[in-house]
Design a protein that fits this description.
Layout lengths: L8 E3 L11 E3 L14 H4 L14 E5 L14 H5 L6 E4 L2 E4 L9 H5 L7 E5 L3
Antiparallel strand pairs: 1-2, 3-6, 4-5
């Protein structure tokens, strides 16, 4: 947690039961900013975070019923703020997620201005 320059890594809350207290990222409060040098990896216990698995933590999904752009209002905030090249694009004025490139960092969810956030981050299945 101390290695993260953006304070994105926090202790998991008690609702995580057995995992409570372990390091986690809550993208709605502070997403992973996808540091190019990944300072979290070398300080984590061996085998927990691995460079060879890439930076994929999960995947973003859009609930189009709550997305401003999908409901006819112009909005491109999630696409503009996404730190991963090719993970999001606008198609006919609506954000589309490239599941292959999306890392699940949560920046899109964190930056979304919609009254009801349409972005969900699904954890990577190991």
């Amino acid at each position: 947690m101390d290695a993260c320059p953006h304070d994105a890594i926090v202790h998991a809350p008690i609702r995580f039961r057995e995992a409570a207290g372990t390091p986690t990222i809550d993208p709605s409060n502070s997403p992973c900013r996808m540091c190019t040098d990944a300072p979290c990896i070398p300080v984590c216990p061996e085998g927990v975070l691995l460079h060879d698995r890439g930076m994929k933590m999960g995947e973003a999904r859009i609930n189009i019923l709550n997305c401003l752009a999908h409901q006819g209002t112009f909005c491109s905030t999630c696409v503009e703020q996404c730190p991963v090249d090719g993970a999001m694009r606008l198609e006919d004025g609506k954000p589309i997620i490239n599941s292959t490139a999306c890392t699940g960092c949560g920046v899109c969810q964190y930056m979304c201005p919609a009254p009801v956030n349409p972005l969900m981050i699904l954890a990577r299945q190991t």
